Amino acid sequence: MALASAVGSMPGEDFDESQRLVIGEVPDLPHLVEVPGRGVTAGMVGRALAMVTDLGIDLQPAGWRVTGSSETSGVDHRRARSLLAQDLDGLEEKLQGYQGSFKVQVAGPWTLAATVERPRGDRVLADVGLRRDLAQALAEGVRAHVRDVRRRVDGVDRLVVQVDEPALAAVAAGAVPTASGFHRHRTVDRPELSETLGWVLSAIDDAGAEPWVHSCAPSTPLDLVRGAGARGLAVDLATVDAAGHDVLAAMLEAGETVALGVVPATDAAAAPTDGEITERVLRWLDALGLDPGVVGEHLVVTPTCGLAGASPAWVRRALTLTTATARHLSGADAADDGA
């Protein structure tokens, strides 16, 4: 049967309410919510840096910055780590007695390299050695995070770690602007892109979790991502190019996972029905020559991206549409199995 899930972020400032909503509305594969409305320490980058303990990190007016050794970390880095621990405490309480699958998210190494500053200015992306150090520190931090989640929620039999890489396409294309804004950082070679991402994905796998990569940016090199070790790809269906469709088809045929973003992530003026979304997914599967009865639970239905920009009413509606679409596709599975 097809599964339902969501991408990660939620609107507002209430972690507890958002977490309860996700657990209740997408029970197939609920996730640890991100609530960036609480401030920069709760955002995607701050949450990932909270897992990094081998480097010094602080927060400057221009954003997060690497400062050197861990002894030089600033108060905001410590706050980010404390907030993550608080969220895990809340999750542990809410999942008492839970049995099933669960997902957590972390920003990937290339998104951090394109976002975080180096000590003397400009992005970490400009420094080959530092971007390697940051990626390796992230890999070790994620490894420890997976172990912590497993310890806290021991009823989870399938733990997914979704590595968010919205900046990967820009890094691969040499489209990340320098600090001045007048130039662009050099394109990173594909072997380095793959190896660096692979460090994080391998750490996830070694820790006993399932590594996925998510990006809703156009032109994300999905073949590279899969080759780096991703066993799941989460995408916005509308942004996938022809080569990307081939990669997604190959993953499903190989028994790997595709999380297909098909439900609008922000309030829709003309909201689609669950039937319309289901028909769109079935047409996509048919175009790829894939049988929904064979794809089964390897297909996950999600919103197109995070829900942080949506109204509370739309968040609930989007999650309902996601689950309803997954159920309809599961009905298609059963119909095909019985044919």
Q: Could you characterize what this model shows?
A:
With 339 residues, this protein is of the alpha/beta class. 45% of the residues lie in helices and 15% in strands. It contains 12 helices and 9 strands. The chain has a 7-stranded parallel β-sheet with strand order 1-9-8-7-6-5-4. Helix 2 (44-50) crosses helix 3 (75-94). The longest helix has 27 residues, at 312-338. The radius of gyration is 19 Å and the shape is globular. It starts with a strand and ends with a helix.
Write the layout of secondary structure elements.
Layout (H helix, E strand, L loop, with lengths): L2 E2 L10 H11 L18 H7 L5 E5 L2 E6 L6 H20 L5 E8 L1 H5 L14 H25 L3 E9 L3 H6 L16 H17 L3 E5 L7 H6 L4 E5 L5 H12 L3 E7 L10 H14 L4 H4 L3 E5 L8 H27 L1
Parallel strand pairs: 1-9, 4-5, 5-6, 6-7, 7-8, 8-9
Antiparallel strand pairs: 2-3
Helix pairs in contact: 1-3, 2-3, 5-7, 10-12
